[in-house]
């Protein structure tokens, strides 16, 4: 089911050109508002209205005086992304297309599961890393999201879907979050006021400097690493970033990573028929991750017309055999249930529609979607 809203004007509005209050920490917001508020606690009221209640309009902050609301509206904007479209899957997963202030579009996915919601969100409006199993990568690079756009994305989807504060949050949507660490960190400072850090996972394709930076943070969310192959040759074929940060460097960096006592690393492993799904691959994967307190998420690849004919999941028997082999080798692992694939909301299927893809070079036989 698709619900589309009217199109957004191309040019940013006057409001969008005023400084955006979303994405500012409590202290920075207090500093900025100091000249116009009558008492210091007013800045805290504005912060809570923005970041806890997701209020998108100063006029609706009725706890503030009319005069203060007017002054805020004259000087600042609230850059809450616009919900442009939502697609509801038969399994109740909902993909939400969001339009940002400059017209860029991103996607976020709400995945309900037994009363709890996991929100899969984007960190960039596209991705330059070109993993061959990922539609976002096929569509090509986009800009980094600001901290306000990351926070606004969560608020907009929460408001649209009427979701409670206590969500799980996974940075597994469009983009590589560890190529946008400054904005990610700033957004996490705000988001963790309502979502516990242990409920937040940042997933990376293996950006070593980004992982090293995360290692220096005082408080860290969970870390997931997209591994997808137990050797460099095949990993480089499906994840070009492996040529910059090969497995040896990535694993060495993970060995230095300060993992909290009660946490595990997650290794994501996309299963692709006849590429990385053999018993020997399960053995090699088990050997590779043996030094880590970790779990493995097995994800049967989600085919998509733009990915070409080779991106096919293994048979159910072969997936099961791979999973069993990991278990025999003592590896904690789960097979991720496919969610939302009927509306292209499943893992690897998010895209930046309404703009041309980067092109089709290197993906023989692939035609642009109509
Ligand atoms: S899988 Fe992640 S890193 Fe790779 S192209 Fe897609 S969004 Fe980028």
The CA-CA distance between the termini, in Å, is 19 Å
- Widest sheet: strand ordering: 1-2-3-4-5-6-7-8-9-10-11
Class based on secondary structure composition and strand pairing: alpha/beta
Q: Quick one: biggest sheet?
A: 11 strands, mixed
Query: In what range is the share of β-strand residues?
Result: 15-25%
Strand tally is 11
Ligand inventory: iron/sulfur cluster
Q: Give the C-alpha Rg.
A: 21 Å
Please tell me the overall pLDDT: 89
What helical percentage do the residues reach?
25-40%
Order of helices and strands: EHHHHEEEEHHEHEHEHHEHEHE
Your description of this structure?
The structure is a single chain. Helices cover 31% and strands 17% of the residues. By secondary structure, it is of the alpha/beta class. The protein has an eleven-stranded mixed beta sheet with strand order 1-2-3-4-5-6-7-8-9-10-11, with helices on one face. Helix 11 runs parallel beside helix 12. The protein is elongated. 43% of the residues are buried.
